[in-house]
Amino acid sequence: MEDEHDYRVLSIQSHVVSGYCGNKAAVFPLQTLGFDVDILNTVQFSNHTGYPSWTGSKMTADQVQELFDGLEANGLTDDYTHILTGYIGNYSILEKVENMVRKLKSKNPKLIYVCDTVMGDEGALYVAPEIVPLYRNILRFVDVVTPNQFEAELLSEMKISSLKDACTAASKLHDLGAPNVIITTLCVPLVDVPKDIQLESSSDQSLYCFTSQTLPDGSIEQHLISFPTYPAYFTGTGDLFSSLVVARLQESINASVIPSLSDAAYRVVCSVNAIAKNTWLHQQKKIENLQDIKSKPDAAKITRQCELQLIKGKKEIECPERVGLGVIKKTRISQP
Amino acid sequence: MEDEHDYRVLSIQSHVVSGYCGNKAAVFPLQTLGFDVDILNTVQFSNHTGYPSWTGSKMTADQVQELFDGLEANGLTDDYTHILTGYIGNYSILEKVENMVRKLKSKNPKLIYVCDTVMGDEGALYVAPEIVPLYRNILRFVDVVTPNQFEAELLSEMKISSLKDACTAASKLHDLGAPNVIITTLCVPLVDVPKDIQLESSSDQSLYCFTSQTLPDGSIEQHLISFPTYPAYFTGTGDLFSSLVVARLQESINASVIPSLSDAAYRVVCSVNAIAKNTWLHQQKKIENLQDIKSKPDAAKITRQCELQLIKGKKEIECPERVGLGVIKKTRISQP
């Protein structure tokens, strides 16, 4: 009989020797929370592409498949409890991944697939356009999808300009097959935001995390989570975010007959925000001209000081509530 | 100014998607203890080669060099505090690594190089014979070398049949340039072992860990550490061991003007032994025919249940003394 807590995650993402993004950002948090992680690296780069240069190689779809086949030949794909995917810029690899998910779900119908549909940000697409409909198709197999606002727009094929739009877009992603949707960063007009979670802000727009969950009775429960922002340059926070969704959703499943996506997301936001804050403080201490970090920095030295303070964030990963209480708040949007 | 605890390790080892050996065994312990680890993977295999089959690819020496060059181009090799190397079966890669160590030491003269000279075990060499003299040469740049008994014999060019032999062999490795030597598993006749650390044993031979350290006055301090053994099949314990040497030696350096290799090794043995015990208990629970695990198992299913219980060993990594006290003992061999 399987132990209550024998969790095995297959995480398919990129790898950088130095710094934190892709699997380098996703694996440590999961391991810290007790999850065994099988690490399938789709690329091997010296560092992330925010640096002036990088070296290394990308795997072909056949090489990725070959590694999966090697696992399968040894029965190592029989009992995955979770699969996590992040940035996969290659259409052929993403097609293979779709088949892997299908296969893993047939071996373990309870397998949870957390899919971070990394395609772009702030209006700019950084994958081939044909990746978009493929992800839309993959949503049929997804348990949690974690797009940013732009990616949610691409998947739902609508512009999100208000909280109402976000609710509608999330419903569309539910219709495509994903029972749980987390729009990780949502920028909406302040008038849309319930008073009790409004943050002090100099602008008339605010940044939030939005969750939408289909309940067993078919109804949809939606929450908005507010969190403070920091004027820093971040890489890998999205990968950290989706990895923690795996762990916190599992906790919620263990705790309740009807797991709460918003509770899970709240705990994720607490950890990610605490690490983001530490990263911002580190940048303030290390970088002389703080103006430099408000946009993508050019010099390798600055970029390096901007790397996520992930390893020093172990406590923040282990104890999210401690760091979040009083600063990060959630409120229900949908009618109870 | 660099923070007191900004440690950055470059770890050059193999990578397996599933299971624990090479970097998969070395990185998590270091990260858990607060070390940033740059992970340079020399191979990408689906699983370790103790399974019936495996897939994946090995990097060429040029590909490894290219990744290092990519780091260097971004100034990311300027401030490594540690370098850790494990199994490198390829002569050309090991030559490149020698040059990398030389370069990193010129950039940071305080850089600590922990070298696990993985070449074979129990009389069997599993690398090309020309690797042996290359490692002997590399000892000039090494701060700690962690051979097993067979590897210590290869490096010192002498047979180790007694504790006295071990002392002599270690002195030879000091002469080759390594100020700190840890023979990770030493099998010596019971008559050699001081009474206060003798373990109950049905045989007339016992397994120990042996440390030898050159002190600032030129004298050599040598210790023997006793630990219980378990009749299980282990993979990756050596990689776990050498990674913890990095962390525990650094602690010892921080704590004292003359760091104690034996104190560091004692704490390493405590953690490794606790995780080995948990792995043995897991094997007992999961494998029906315990006879199967006393030798290298054939079936993938059994091999998989033999994987190191590393992730569940977080507490044992964080708090080594708690688990070791009373069971694991060390005694001084050299005259004070």
From TrEMBL, chains A, B:
Task: Extract the Gene3D superfamilies matched here.
Answer: 3.40.1190.20
User: What domain of life does the native source organism fall in?
Assistant: Eukaryota
Q: Name one GO cellular component term.
A: cytosol
One GO biological process from the UniProt record?
A: pyridoxal 5'-phosphate salvage
Tell whether ATP-binding is among the UniProt keywords: yes
Molecular functions (GO terms): ATP binding; pyridoxal kinase activity
Pyridoxamine kinase/Phosphomethylpyrimidine kinase domain sequence ranges: 82-251
Keyword field contains S-adenosyl-L-methionine: no
Q: Which InterPro entries match?
A: PM/HMP-P_kinase-1 (IPR013749), PyrdxlKinase (IPR004625), Ribokinase-like (IPR029056)
| Enzyme Commission number | 2.7.1.35
- What does the UniProt keyword field contain? ATP-binding, Kinase, Nucleotide-binding, Transferase
Class in the EC hierarchy, top level:
transferase
Q: Which Pfam families match?
A: Phos_pyr_kin
Entry similarity comment: Belongs to the pyridoxine kinase family.
Which PANTHER family does the record associate with it? PYRIDOXAL KINASE (PTHR10534:SF2)
NCBIfam families per the UniProt record, alphabetical: pyridox_kin
**Name of the protein in its database record:** pyridoxal kinase
